[in-house]
Specification:
alpha/beta, 22 helices, GH, transferase, 4-stranded antiparallel sheet, globular, EC 2.4.1.25, 8-stranded parallel sheet, about 575 residues
Length: about 575
């Protein structure tokens, strides 16, 4: 548990979307090599954490949270330079703010393939050794070769014989052996390059933080190989809230915790053990989902007909006891039989016209049923979530950090607090429960990471300019601490950074773009530098590329001086 002990002190860091930080030695987009100049810069500023978004293979998709494997690293991130293949990008300048990941990946694969073929003997030997140590690679590679063969088509649309993983593995590793070994070789290189970065960072006193998505794409190797780990007729999402009237549907199958538990959570154990080769800390995506998740029938387009899974539900006998036939309530669309003789009430069912038009005495009997098991459900969810998190902590020495944003029910908040899980506090949303005002630096919870933005939000400069009341922001971030009101965008950003570094949170990790003091386009047009707009099509996101080469960015004396001063005065270096 050595790492945990050393990490848990006041620290500052930077979060990057790896493909966005292009280096002079990168090929078209940021890659594993980009972490070396970033590391030197972090060390110089006083940062001691570098956080990455997930690096999983996304196939033909774009979002790293919707990968085709829970293990495999996207070949997009392999550094050709580190491989000794000094192929230069076509352009010396960064022309646009967007990468084309599929095009770049295909070009890289061509270059690595010819290297693989010209050094076949030793390449095959390395790949074989890797395959023996990493059994997950068998199924991933089989899936990947078939995925290419059928141009990204869903695995359940493949010929029937390939829907059986065992048959498919035997076929691919005998009939397509060379192609299969090439994909193993890619994972071997990615593994070597990323684990070398971890060691390099350790030497510099810097910790690398990874990301573990909780859900897995339906069209993925994991779901194809282990459909029993997932509830295939359901999809995960989020219930309606003030951001979305109809909630969110994500399309990912819901995890089948019962089966996972019977297998002693071996899939999670393998994932965490693999991540530990690369990272010292990791972010648990959507930690609330470890306690309970909003489950929606897989064909639904909105989340309105969902329920918190796992749930006991209300039994037929409990309806009959008060003289209500549950079938009649199901017919008018207020409840749903989600397992034999067990019903759930739909979200906001009491707002439905069919409920409003019921006789008052029926309403008086029906409504209390919807509240019947809440206390025991919450107790059950809490115990289940804590058991899972406990297991996670026993599987690895990485320090877990929980993504606990959104409306977190109080029983989960209490649980995370008692477990001393490090959470996340986004400055713009961290407000007083009583007054609704921003809270002071020393009122932040200590066991958290304070941030100005996340990969799913607007950048802090866009928030400043277009969201919320400007006057109250000026009063809080500048007048309150006796600072002159800012006259330039740079002064605004510097003031916000000073605030976030001074918070009581144990960690303060900022998005790379929010540290871009003195980069005119970022300060003036922050909306163009965003990584992801949740709820919009995949291909319009996740392609962001920073406008300046990393080497040029890290050599700016004025910016470095300012950041170093902020880190130093906040006691985080």
């Amino acid at each position: 548990m050595g790492t945990l002990v050393r990490v848990k002190q006041r620290r500052a860091g930077v979060l990057v979307s790896l493909p966005s930080i292009v280096s002079t030695h990168s090929f078209e987009c940021g890659d594993i090599y980009s972490l070396y100049p970033l590391c030197d810069w972090a060390k110089d500023i006083g940062f001691s954490i570098i956080q990455l978004l997930p690096l999983n293979d996304t196939g033909y998709g774009y979002s790293p949270y919707s990968a085709i494997s829970a293990f495999a690293i996207d070949p997009l991130y392999i550094s050709l330079y580190k491989l000794g293949l000094n192929v230069q990008s076509r352009k010396k300048e960064i022309a646009t703010l967007h990468n084309h990941p599929n095009r770049i990946r295909n070009l890289k694969l061509e270059i690595i393939r010819s290297h693989f073929e010209s050094h076949q003997k030793e390449s095959l030997k390395e790949a074989l050794e890797f395959l023996e140590k990493q059994p997950w690679c068998y199924s991933y590679v089989t899936f990947r070769v078939l995925y290419e063969m059928y141009e990204g088509k869903n695995w359940w649309e493949w010929p029937i014989e390939y829907q059986n993983p065992q048959t498919a593995k035997d076929y691919i590793f005998t009939k397509n052996r060379e192609e299969a070994m090439f994909w193993v070789y890619l994972q071997k290189i990615a593994y070597d390059q990323l684990s070398a970065v971890k060691i390099h960072l350790e030497d510099k006193g810097i910790y690398l933080k990874g990301d573990m998505p909780i859900l897995t794409a339906r069209n993925s190797c994991d779901v194809w190989e282990h459909p029993e780990y997932f509830l295939m007729d359901l999809q995960a999402g989020a219930p309606p809230d003030h951001f979305s009237q109809t909630g969110q549907t994500w399309g990912f199958p819901v995890l089948n915790w019962e089966v996972l538990q019977k297998n002693h959570y071996s899939w999670w154990k393998d994932r965490l053990s693999y991540l530990e080769h690369f990272f010292h800390l990791y972010r648990i995506d959507h930690v609330i989902g470890m306690y309970r998740i909003w489950a929606i029938p897989k064909e639904d387009k909105t989340a309105l007909k969902g329920w918190f899974h796992p749930q006991f539900g209300i039994e037929t006998s409990e309806f009959l006891k008060v003289g209500i036939d549950p079938k009649s309530m199901e017919e008018i669309g207020l409840i749903h039989e989600f397992k034999p003789n067990h019903y759930i009430f739909y979200w906001d069912f009491w707002k439905e016209t069919s409920y409003q038009s019921l006789p008052e005495e029926t309403k008086a009997k029906l409504f209390p049923l919807s509240q019947l098991h809440i206390a025991e459900e919450e107790r059950h969810w809490r115990e289940a979530g804590e058991a899972i998190l406990e297991i996670f902590e026993s599987f690895s020495t990485m320090l877990p950090c929980a993504e606990d944003l959104g409306s977190v029910p109080s029983f989960i908040r209490d649980s995370l607090f008692e477990r001393q899980m490090i959470g996340i506090d986004v400055v713009r949303w961290t407000k007083s429960f009583t007054t609704g005002e921003f809270i002071w630096e020393d009122q932040y919870r200590e066991n958290a990471i304070s941030v100005l933005s996340t990969h799913d939000t607007s950048l802090v400069m866009e928030w400043w300019k277009t969201e919320g009341d400007l006057e109250s922001k000026l009063q809080f971030f500048f007048d309150r601490v006796g600072k002159p009101r800012p006259e330039t965008e740079n002064q605004i950003l510097e003031g916000l950074l000073e605030f976030v570094f001074q918070t009581k949170s144990i960690f303060c990790i900022q998005l790379f773009q929010d540290l871009a003091l003195g980069v005119p386009d970022l300060l003036e047009n922050p909306e163009k530098h965003r990584i992801n707009y949740p709820g919009t099509p995949d291909h319009s996101n996740w392609t962001y590329r920073f406008p300046i080469l990393i080497e040029e960015f890290v050599s700016d004396f004025q910016r470095n001086f300012t950041l170093r001063k902020l880190v130093h005065s906040s006691g985080r270096n």
